[in-house]
Structures are given as structure tokens and as C-alpha cells.
Write a structure and sequence with these properties.
Blueprint: E1 12-16, E2 34-35, E3 39-53, E4 64-79, H1 92-100, E5 104-110, E6 117-130, E7 138-146, E8 150-151, H2 152-155
Antiparallel strand pairs: 1-2, 1-5, 3-4, 4-7, 5-6, 6-7, 6-8
């Protein structure tokens, strides 16, 4: 039997500033998430701080390493658009304002079937724009959060 693979085209980046950041993952309303418009690429990264410790109880009196605070980031890059009337996607200028105002909210990477989901509270930590000559203007965004990051098992009752 051949393996089935995820196609990255279907996994997109979304933002929700309607549900309060105190909302439990299971109670999030995914209709409140707005799609970031015209992405070419997006990604996710998770890291943990290391805490070195030792005590007289440590095996052989050697140091131990325990996990510390977890930080995560979501990234996206794409082409700048001018949203039309009724277009609910987040365009470049809306993202700029979220970054400028240091607004915190729910961010999610998921496919429509929610088979692969990452969701957490974060803020834009970096926002970039590029205006090349005779080509599409582009943007890139990095979202950073710390603490718990949910997955598809956290949002499915």
C-alpha cells in the first residue's frame, strides 16, 4: 500500500482576533479565523529552552537537562493584494496594522479538513515588504508565541 502524503497547498495561515485569548482550544470558533491572502509559502517551528540542573539525587551526581519554556513560530510569505469589496481575506495592509499595533490573537495553520492543525496565541514578531522593479510586490510575516501550541486533537470534541 502506498503512503499518503500531505499536500502543502491545502495548509494555510489564518488569524482570529474575535475569540478572546483566554478561550479554550476546544471552544474556538473556526469561522472567526480569517485567511491570509495570496500566500506562496508558510511554515511552523517549535523550540524548547533547556534548563541544566543537578542535585545530590542526580544519577552519578551528573547534571540533568529538563525542558523549559516552549516557543513556537508560524511564518508566511506571499503576494500583496488589494482586497476587493466583500473579500474577507487579510491583505498586506491589514497585516501591517496588526504588526504595528502589536496586536495579540489566535493564529492557526490548518487544512480545511483540519487533519493537520497548529493553533496558538501569538503576535507578529516580524513583518517585511518588498517592492521589486517590474514584479509583484511581496510580504512576509513571522508570528511568535510561547507556551502551549494546540493541534488537531485539541480542537476535536
Amino acid at each position: 500500500m502506498a503512503d499518503k502524503f500531505y499536500n502543502g497547498k491545502g495548509t494555510l495561515l489564518y488569524y482570529n482576533n474575535v475569540d478572546p485569548i483566554e478561550t479554550e482550544l476546544i471552544d474556538l470558533d473556526f469561522t472567526n479565523f480569517k485567511l491570509l491572502a495570496c500566500l506562496d509559502d508558510n511554515g511552523f517551528s517549535l523550540s524548547s529552552a533547556d534548563i541544566d540542573t543537578s542535585s545530590k539525587c542526580s544519577a552519578g551526581n551528573f547534571g540533568e537537562n529538563i525542558g523549559g519554556l516552549q516557543n513556537w513560530s508560524m511564518t508566511g510569505s506571499g503576494k500583496k493584494i488589494i482586497p476587493g469589496v466583500g473579500d474577507t481575506r487579510l491583505g498586506n495592509n491589514q497585516l501591517f496594522k496588526i504588526a504595528r499595533d502589536n496586536e495579540q490573537g489566535w493564529w492557526a495553520l490548518f487544512d480545511m479538513a483540519k487533519l493537520s492543525t497548529r493553533v496558538g496565541v501569538g503576535r507578529i514578531s516580524q513583518f517585511d515588504e518588498s517592492q521589486p522593479n517590474n514584479d509583484n510586490e511581496t510580504f512576509s510575516v513571522s508570528i511568535t508565541g510561547s507556551g502551549y501550541i494546540g493541534d488537531q486533537d485539541d480542537i476535536t470534541p
